[in-house]
Design the sequence.
């Protein structure tokens, strides 16, 4: 048995193992069992009871800038690649080596079977390939020997070195027939030459771009690691802190939450409306005071204005009578009846709100507001009572929640540390080999390129001679011995064909040897590497690699028993191609039950503390939310004078005419009359001017201000009317309705208050623990199905395979296939070229059946004397 040194697998395993390392975290989670059990309530929950705020969990800001691409453009060589693959699959077995030929021994090294004993198996497995290799070696060996023999044969005048100078009977048909065959062969050779040049260029581009594609794949792998770290940190640390902060707020506000729900359940929330009524009495009182003040102001102003108008009217009437002889005075007296100048609006109709003010003052003096607020304060004491009951339990609950968070955070830190370690491994163990590989490519790839280019050029030269030979042979004239001979005749075609023949004999061995080297390297790489990478589930090479690389050691806990079905690189690749999560890729359900993470509240005593908190929330005393005095005072308010205010009276006042005659119009008429009086009535003129000025003053400073006051009075009255309704049709209805609701709430509190509080406390505890349950359920679900979805790894893997196999191996195999096919075409090309060369050398046409024997006799008869006789 022969032993082979262990393969260096670090670089090959990097893409496969990236998602494996994070499995240690799940092992850590498995150490903590017995989490969340939903607390069972003894009674059915109340409807619409949701005393807690929803947690707004943050979402990891992941980058999607993955650049690995699986696109591949064959650039017109798809059929060549297909033929090459078909040929390889036809002559070679699917597996790279026979079963049992290579095995991994106990020392974790590759052990090769005894070739002396296993040669029949090897011969059966590699028989077709060996036949191809032997044929190629035989071809490369015999062709130069045949060429040498043919050269010697030509040198002694044989093998077509000398031909008849004229065509035989069927030579024109033979020229056309063999020419057509050689044209077909030449076209096929040209295809091979084109494929050789093209595959060489594509191969060079693929080799040059390989480091770039691999770096992109590694960059995507690092990006995948960073995204997974962000997902883990956000889910296990950030989201838990958000949950912890929300739970702390809920516990600190537990008294207020339960009080609000108790108010909803017993309809005690009506206390707030009742309190709004009594607190609004001060606003109503202010409105009444304003109305009373404005009403008194209107009464006083209207009295003064009425007195002033009467005095001015008397004076105007006296002045007009003194100038009755003049037409302006008579005309004025006809239009205006100054005796009727007075205040038209009767402000005495405004309601008297003194009684209402007195009622409010009496209610305030009786302490109506304080009596109503007593009930509200008594109800609100429940909040303080509940908060004091749970105050000692809150630190214990938060302490246990904090322990849960620390356990989860410990696992998160472990995940992040392992991911960072993996990232460091990629940076330290890949970058240097990548640089070395790129250096080797830059150093040796040009030699390969120029060798392939030289092979392609050699084939091209042979193709050119064949092409020129055919062109001259088909299109040129017959050769002759004159100096005027056309350079492109059949003789030139014959010479070009023979040059092509000599080049084919000289280069066929070397070309076949190069093609054979490429063939061996290409088919070995295809079966050993590319076929295994593309079909890992059905590859003995991958099976061997799985035995050498124990992937399980990357995620198993130290000392842990091996799982029933250990994972390997093949299962990882298959799972990544399906875009499964980290948990599914590693098949950790056989070793770790992640669902047991839900037992943390039991393990850290969170449930017990919540039960203790619920048991501490009790209502063990009677609550009186409204006193008898408060009820009496409210009823007195409901039947007070506030219900009897005549609000339409305020609207009617502003709609009436303020004065019997428009003062500004009257002043204008007085000014016009005074201006028309003759100088004889100068005193009356001045008096009329003064009266007009007084009227204008009254209009501006008295009437206008009174109109403004009436508008304000109307607005305040409308506001007061709305305030007195308290969202009902009237104050009376509002107070009676609220008193009825408060009475109902009082009865519920007395009869069912203790039970309702107990029930609300139970629901509160259930809903509190549901927060933790929701979060841990999210942890379980996301760790099983979402965290670390390895589609980016699959994309990077596929991109690397395409960069190495499709972009490099396909043109590599296409090159030797093209060269090999062209070299094999040399055999018929040589035979046909030799035949055509002889046919192209004949200078004369077919002389006919009768002339041909004599022609031959004259030409080749050695015993005839061709010298003419002298006369």
Sequence:
């Amino acid at each position: 048995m022969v032993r082979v040194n262990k393969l260096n697998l670090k670089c090959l395993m990097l893409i496969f193992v990236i998602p494996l390392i994070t499995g240690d975290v799940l092992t850590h989670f498995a150490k903590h069992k017995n989490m969340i059990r939903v607390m069972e309530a003894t009674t059915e929950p109340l409807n619409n009871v949701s005393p807690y705020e929803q947690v707004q969990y943050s979402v990891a800001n992941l980058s999607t800038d993955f650049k690995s691409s699986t696109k591949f453009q064959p650039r017109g060589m798809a059929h060549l690649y297909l033929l090459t693959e078909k040929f390889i699959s036809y002559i070679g077995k699917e597996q790279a080596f026979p079963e049992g030929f290579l095995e991994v021994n106990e020392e974790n090294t590759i052990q090769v079977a005894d070739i002396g004993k296993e040669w029949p198996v090897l011969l059966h497995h590699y028989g077709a390939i060996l036949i191809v290799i032997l044929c190629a070696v035989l071809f490369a060996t015999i062709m130069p020997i045949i060429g040498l023999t043919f050269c010697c044969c030509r040198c002694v005048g044989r093998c077509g070195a000398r031909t008849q100078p004229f065509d035989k009977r069927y030579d024109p048909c033979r020229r056309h027939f063999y020419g057509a065959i050689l044209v077909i062969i030449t076209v096929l050779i040209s295809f091979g030459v084109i494929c050789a040049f093209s595959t060489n260029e594509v191969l060079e581009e693929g080799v040059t771009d390989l480091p770039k594609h691999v770096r992109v794949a590694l960059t995507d792998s690092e990006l995948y690691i960073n995204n997974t770290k962000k997902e883990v940190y956000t889910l296990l640390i950030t989201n838990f802190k958000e949950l912890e902060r929300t739970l702390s707020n809920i516990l600190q506000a537990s008294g207020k939450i339960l009080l609000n729900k108790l108010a909803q359940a017993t309809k005690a929330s009506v206390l707030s409306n009742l309190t709004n009524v009594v607190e609004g009495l001060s606003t109503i009182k202010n409105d009444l005071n304003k109305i009373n003040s404005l009403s008194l102001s209107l009464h006083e102003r209207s009295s003064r204005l009425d007195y002033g108008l009467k005095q001015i009217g008397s004076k105007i009437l006296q002045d007009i009578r003194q100038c009755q002889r003049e037409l302006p005075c008579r005309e004025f007296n006809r239009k205006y009846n100054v005796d009727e100048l007075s205040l038209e609006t009767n402000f005495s109709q405004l309601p008297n709100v003194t009684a209402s003010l007195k009622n409010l003052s009496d209610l305030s003096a009786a302490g109506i507001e304080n009596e109503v607020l007593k009930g509200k304060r008594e109800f609100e004491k429940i909040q303080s009572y509940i908060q004091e009951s749970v105050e000692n339990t809150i630190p214990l609950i938060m302490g246990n929640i904090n322990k849960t968070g620390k356990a989860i955070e410990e696992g998160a830190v472990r995940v992040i540390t392992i991911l960072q370690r993996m990232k460091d491994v990629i940076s330290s163990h890949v970058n240097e080999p990548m640089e070395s590989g790129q250096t080797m490519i830059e150093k040796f790839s040009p030699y390969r390129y120029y060798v392939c280019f030289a092979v392609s050029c050699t084939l091209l030269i042979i193709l050119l001679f064949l092409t020129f030979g055919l062109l001259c042979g088909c299109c040129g004239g017959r050769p002759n011995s004159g100096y005027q001979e056309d350079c492109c005749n059949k003789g030139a075609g014959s010479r070009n064909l023979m040059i092509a023949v000599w080049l084919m004999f000289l280069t066929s061995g070397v070309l076949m040897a190069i093609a054979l080297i490429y063939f061996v390297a290409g088919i070995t790489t295809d079966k050993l590497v590319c076929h295994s990478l593309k079909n890992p589930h059905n590859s003995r090479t991958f099976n061997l690699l799985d035995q050498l690389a124990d992937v399980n050691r990357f995620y198993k806990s130290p000392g842990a028993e091996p799982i029933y079905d250990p994972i390997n690189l093949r299962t990882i690749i298959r799972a990544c191609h399906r875009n499964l999560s980290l948990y599914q890729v590693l098949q950790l359900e056989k070793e770790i039950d992640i669902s047991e993470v839900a037992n943390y509240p039991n393990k850290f005593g969170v449930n017990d503390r919540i039960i203790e908190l619920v048991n501490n929330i009790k209502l063990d005393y009677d609550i009186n939310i409204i006193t008898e005095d408060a009820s009496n005072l409210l009823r007195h308010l409901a039947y007070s004078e506030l219900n009897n205010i005549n609000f339409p009276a305020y609207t009617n006042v502003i709609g009436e005419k303020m004065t019997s005659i428009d003062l500004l119009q009257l002043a204008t008429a007085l000014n016009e009359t005074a201006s028309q009086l003759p100088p004889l009535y100068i005193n009356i003129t001045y008096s009329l001017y003064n009266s007009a000025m007084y009227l204008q003053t009254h209009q501006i400073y008295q009437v206008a201000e009174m109109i403004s006051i009436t508008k304000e009075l109307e607005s305040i009255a409308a506001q007061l009317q709305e305030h007195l309704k308290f969202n009902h049709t009237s104050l009376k209805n509002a107070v009676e309705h609220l008193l009825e609701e408060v009475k109902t709430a009082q009865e519920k509190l007395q009869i069912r208050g203790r039970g309702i509080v107990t029930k609300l406390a139970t629901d509160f505890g259930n809903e509190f623990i549901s927060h933790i349950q929701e979060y841990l359920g999210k942890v379980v679900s996301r760790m099983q199905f979402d965290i670390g979805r390895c589609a980016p790894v699959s994309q990077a893997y596929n991109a690397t395979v395409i960069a190495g196999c499709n972009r490099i191996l396909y043109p590599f195999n296409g090159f030797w296939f093209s060269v090999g096919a062209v070299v094999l075409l040399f055999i018929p090309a040589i035979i046909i070229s030799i035949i055509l060369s002889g046919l192209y050398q004949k200078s004369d046409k077919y002389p006919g059946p009768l002339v041909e024997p004599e022609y031959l006799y004259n030409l080749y008869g050695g015993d005839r004397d061709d010298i003419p006789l002298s006369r």
